């Protein structure tokens, strides 16, 4: 069975078969994707351009914004284009490549969020050692470790999926190539492999989520010893992180911690963590952060002055 593979392309069933709904979704998701690219790119440009935003917190925030753009770009352009065509196809090779990028960027984002929580823990709970621990070298290594972790995670399950036999049918009940819907099309027993994927995906998300929750509980408890001004500033920063963590990890953990039984439900939930959360992240971080808003205003003023000259 391992050598049987007469599938050269897959067909996505997409989010809806209704032409009117697809037209509405085309406009809606196009707006979402443009907002994701512009909003997150603005944060990256602002952090890179501003001398005031040179702390590790903003260094990690710029990487999170960059990953959000990459993560959404792995699914959104294909999804948006498919709303305009009746037959939504993707080649077998293209499907495996898309699966790799989705899980590579998704897992990397998980690790970056964990790193950001560690940064806040050191800043609030170990303030005297913050500059000693969170050096530029340490920050660089933490980012590299996040990328490497995401790469190994994605490479493992992509290689396992590529080795499966596919002999039909070839219709994927989703809008992008994900492990669970693709696994259902393999013409062999995939029960054990399905469990491996649940552990590989679900446990990474669940353990990371628990680590984040515990770290923020420790941070909140330690704030009792801070001044009221310091407490308000720390709560504002941590509040943004906690909001992003809940929005991303909630639906993501729900999808991957169990074997999929309802694909229609799973693909609707997937819209939330592949498109909605990356779109909301820039708003969450800028609306609650005066330093970022101030840097954006200065960047805009500088651009206007240069254009006026």
TrEMBL record:
Keyword Transmembrane in annotation: yes
Residue ranges of every copy of the G-protein coupled receptors family 1 profile domain listed in the record: 39-285
UniProt-recorded Gene Ontology molecular function terms: G protein-coupled receptor activity; olfactory receptor activity
Subcellular location: Cell membrane; Membrane
Membrane-crossing segments per the record: 26-48, 100-118, 139-156, 203-223, 235-257, 269-287
Keyword terms, alphabetized: Cell membrane, G-protein coupled receptor, Membrane, Olfaction, Receptor, Sensory transduction, Transducer, Transmembrane, Transmembrane helix
Protein's UniProt keywords contain Transmembrane: yes
InterPro entries: GPCR_Rhodpsn, GPCR_Rhodpsn_7TM, Olfact_rcpt, Olfactory_Receptors
Any single GO CC term annotated in Swiss-Prot or TrEMBL for this entry: plasma membrane
Pfam families linked: 7tm_4
SUPFAM superfamilies the UniProt entry points to: Family A G protein-coupled receptor-like (SSF81321)
Membrane topology recorded in Swiss-Prot or TrEMBL: Multi-pass membrane protein
Database matches in Gene3D superfamilies: Rhodopsin 7-helix transmembrane proteins (1.20.1070.10)
Principal location: membrane
Sequence similarity: Belongs to the G-protein coupled receptor 1 family.
PANTHER family (alphabetical): OLFACTORY RECEPTOR
Record's protein name: Olfactory receptor
Organism taxonomic ancestry: Eukaryota, Metazoa, Chordata, Craniata, Vertebrata
Gene: LOC102375811
């Amino acid at each position: 069975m391992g050598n049987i593979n007469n599938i050269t392309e897959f067909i996505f069933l997409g989010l809806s078969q209704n032409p009117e709904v697809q037209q509405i979704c085309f406009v809606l998701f196009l707006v979402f994707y443009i907002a994701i690219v512009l909003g997150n790119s603005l944060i990256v440009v602002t952090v890179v351009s501003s001398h005031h935003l040179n702390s590790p917190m903003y260094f990690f925030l710029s990487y999170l914004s960059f990953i959000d753009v990459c993560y959404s770009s792995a699914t959104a352009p294909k999804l948006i284009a498919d709303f305009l065509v009746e037959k939504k196809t993707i080649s077998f090779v293209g499907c495996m490549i898309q699966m790799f990028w989705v899980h590579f960027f998704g897992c990397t984002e998980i690790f970056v969020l964990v790193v950001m929580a560690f940064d806040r823990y050191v800043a609030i709970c170990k303030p005297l050692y913050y500059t000693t621990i969170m050096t530029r070298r340490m920050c660089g290594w933490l980012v590299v470790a996040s990328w490497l972790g995401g790469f190994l995670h994605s490479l493992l399950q992509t290689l396992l999926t590529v080795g499966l036999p596919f002999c039909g049918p070839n219709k994927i009940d989703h809008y992008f190539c994900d492990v669970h819907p693709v696994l259902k099309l393999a013409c062999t027993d995939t029960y054990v492999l399905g469990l491996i994927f649940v552990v590989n995906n679900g446990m990474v998300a669940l353990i990371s989520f628990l680590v984040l929750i515990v770290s923020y509980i420790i941070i909140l408890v330690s704030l009792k010893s801070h001044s009221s001004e310091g407490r308000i500033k720390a709560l504002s920063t941590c509040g943004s992180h906690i909001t992003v963590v809940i929005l991303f990890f909630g639906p993501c953990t729900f999808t991957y911690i169990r074997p999929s039984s309802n694909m229609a439900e799973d693909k609707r939930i997937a819209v939330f963590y592949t498109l909605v959360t990356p779109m909301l992240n820039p708003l969450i971080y800028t609306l609650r952060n005066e330093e970022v808003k101030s840097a954006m205003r200065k960047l805009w003023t500088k651009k206007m002055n240069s254009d006026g000259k």
